[in-house]
Predict the 3D structure of the following.
Amino acid sequence: MSFARLPFFGLLVLLFVAACAEPAADHDESHDASPVADLPPAIIGEGGELTGQDLMYLEGDDSTKGYLAVPEGEGPFPALVIVHEWNGLSDRVRQMADDFAAEGYVTLAADLYQGRVGTNRDENIALMTEAGDNMPAVVANLNAAVAYLKGRDDVTGRVGTVGWCFGGGIVMSYGLDGDEHDATAIFYGRLIEDPAVLATMDHEIYGTFAQLDQGPAPESVARFEAALDSVGISHDLHIYDAVNHGFWLRVDEDPDVRSAPAADAWARLKAYLDRTLG
């Protein structure tokens, strides 16, 4: 694994602090957006009681506790590892694991902070910095999550990753340095713009971004797309107007503005996962 390709964390922390801590308000430019019903319950604030279970998937580490959600039926099913935002494994991310299970994916919400969850900006920065200072351990953590899923009798063997904000940047890097997996879905995470590094990616990439965001900014997304094109990596990337960082996981904070782009991103994500994980 070439961890030297991750020369990022000081800059990454600044990027996420700017993007996550106090994003500018979303703006409804058209004034005719309306709530869209076809969204997973978790992201519209209607996630129900958790139906999965806590899981210690990292051998020798009793502090790291993920969350496992399994579809109804016998399977076998494709699988997902989902990676939390800068504050850690929250109930909203657990609820999202339940929603992915309802879509037919055995889903493991990874824990990169050893059971800790930040409750304010300073705590979030400290947790994120600690993880970034030990990227080999982060990759080992996600390798263990992928291995656990591939070892289940009810999993087809095809596994993808999904991450938001901090988690988006992590799954991007993991797509290059982690054990073999089949999909990488990024929601407004740190991007890699070097074609020579991206050339090692062996599967299509999904990305959802926001026009009003600075983490990453639209200009960075454009450079990322150009780099992918230059090395022939397939992708489904889209920048949504009128929304800012974090819009997808928290539609309920501004449903009139966020529902329509979130629904489109969700439809794209489901089609992408069907293509790559089947």
Notes: The longest helix spans residues 255-277. The helical segments are 9-21, 91-102, 121-132, 135-150, 166-177, 195-198, 218-230, 255-277. The radius of gyration is 17 Å. The chain has one domain: 54-277.
